[in-house]
Amino acid sequence: MTQSSIRTVGFIGIGVMGRGMASNLLKAGYSLRVFTRRKETAKKPLESGAVWCDSPAQTAQGSDAVITMVGFPADVKEIYLGPSGLIEAAAPGTLLVDMTTSSPTLAAQIAHDGAQRGLFCLDAPVSGGDTGAAKGTLSIMVGGTEEAFEKARGLLSAMGTEVHRQGGAGMGQHTKMVNQILIASGMVAVSEALCYAKAAGLDPESVMASVSKGAAASWTLDNRWPQMLSGNYKPGFYVKHFIKDMGIALQSAREMNLQLPGLELADKLYRQLAEDGGENDGTQALFKLYDRYLVARRLKS
To answer: Catalytic: which of 176, 198, 244, 288?
Structure first.
């Protein structure tokens, strides 16, 4: 299979991210076969010409490539390695691309088992949120063989503008962990900075105008502080999925004998947020905890 021979693509997982990604594949001219747990969430791609499949295995039938974008490593393991999973169902030569943020160890296992059956497997997690998925501007971090990457390059370019192979199997997932570590500490920093500004009696919007273009500038600062201040906690990325990601990063760090205290703090705070009922909020909802501190401070004064 050459890169140009990929015409029909199976897509598993039409959620917050998968919806935009599938739409961009259709716009790029690929024929799409889709499966997701709730058929109604696939309404838009189905109306645009995608074909519904009744199982992950069925998406592989007649597909040159299959992409998965699901929630948790347990889902990935079941879809790829379970009975009638993709490793068993896909024809030799099929390209399998898991774009879920998942375990590097699991990615390596999938690549190994896939290679035994003549399959080309990549782990290719993404960054850019639902906005990047919709616009086709995702950053895609790829792990796998150079041959598999070259087969996938055109396919991945239909969904992202930054597509980079980071090394062998699992290295895409390790790169995504770097991304999530940066975001975790950054979200804590933005929340604390806004909390401080409000406690000091500053005008937060004026403060952000001063600091957002200097050394403190970041994507998280630019895009999340307005949502925090307005109480807009609509999920572009769910708190429950971010907790999953931080857990993978912490486990991987332990396996490498690394201690990451900043990540440990962020993980603790987000778990507290989830316990308080915020697991289905967007990650910017971390500010809820800090806003609570402000309310408590006002009650004491």
So the answer is: 176
